[in-house]
């Protein structure tokens, strides 16, 4: 995804949640990105913030800090080994 599009989408999420109290807004942005963004885009966002995160809403910066601190910021669905393990459990 192009960075401009990613920034615009992340900022739209942050703008939506910005009307809530700070803790709820931070949780909302973090949860939305973790739940609905595919792992490679989350990784791209984390890398973008690490490079300065120019143009991102402060709530996005906070969400990315939380995502980066998670054991698997890319999520299990993006991990081929995890997918194989999930497949073995299903059979």
Automatic annotation (TrEMBL):
Keywords: Oxidoreductase
Pfam families: FdsD (PF11390)
GO molecular function, one term: oxidoreductase activity
Region (Disordered): 65-91
EC number: 1.2.1.2
Name the UniProt record assigns to this protein: NAD-dependent formate dehydrogenase delta subunit protein
Organism: Salinisphaera shabanensis E1L3A
């Amino acid at each position: 995804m192009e960075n401009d599009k990613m920034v615009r989408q992340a900022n739209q999420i942050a703008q939506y949640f910005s009307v809530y109290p700070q803790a709820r807004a931070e949780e909302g942005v973090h949860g939305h990105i973790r739940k609905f963004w595919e792992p490679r885009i989350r990784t791209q966002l984390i890398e973008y913030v690490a490079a300065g995160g120019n143009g991102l809403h402060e709530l996005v910066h906070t969400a990315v800090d939380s995502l980066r601190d998670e054991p698997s910021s890319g999520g299990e669905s993006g991990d081929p080994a995890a997918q194989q393990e999930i497949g073995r459990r299903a059979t």
